[in-house]
Amino acid sequence: KKLVIINGPNLNLLGKREPEIYGSQTFEDYLEALKSKYNNVDLEYFQSNIEGELIDKLQEVGFSYDGIILNAAAYTHTSVGIGDAVKAIEVPVVEVHISNTFSREEFRHQSYISPNAKGVILGFGLKSYDLAIESFIF
Ligand code: DQA
Question: Hey, where's the site called Transition state stabilizer on this chain (predicted)?
């Protein structure tokens, strides 16, 4: 299976960004662990702080891969453009968040991704990504 993890803005700072919410592990370290756990999965990683680059990536992979794991971070709550891209493509998208966005500020309760996502996994820390991969395997 060919899967891609797409991470949005500020997720390049994982490990040093608000560790009480997002944990103290870098995503690069976590990714290595994921890759060895799922060594039969072709797992790609893409991160950008730029909304249009996230849309370009969704369009690039959105008609050929087996699955997309998307944490659009803050753009989740603001981006009609990313929401439209998720709707436009054919590859199923699982929306992921590290934190439980529903236990946080009201503005994080809104998602432009969820209406067109295959499913949503949130609140399990970095393990949310692991669970999203599982969802594509079984
Ligand atoms: C996040 C939750 C968003 O509200 C926030 O803007 C993020 C990270 C999460 O993974 O918990 O940057 O998507």
Answer: 17
Annotation marks residue 109 as catalytic: no
Residue 27, domain CATH: 3.40.50.9100
120 lines ligand 1 (CB under 6 A): no
Q: What is the ipTM of this complex?
A: 0.99
pTM above 0.95, yes or no: yes
Residue from 99, 102, 113, 120 whose mutation best tests the ligand 1 pocket (most atoms within 8 A of CB): 99
Give every strand in the sheet of 119-122, ordered side by side: 42-47, 2-7, 67-71, 93-97, 119-122
Query: Residue 116: which domain range?
Result: 2-137
Domain count, the chain: 1
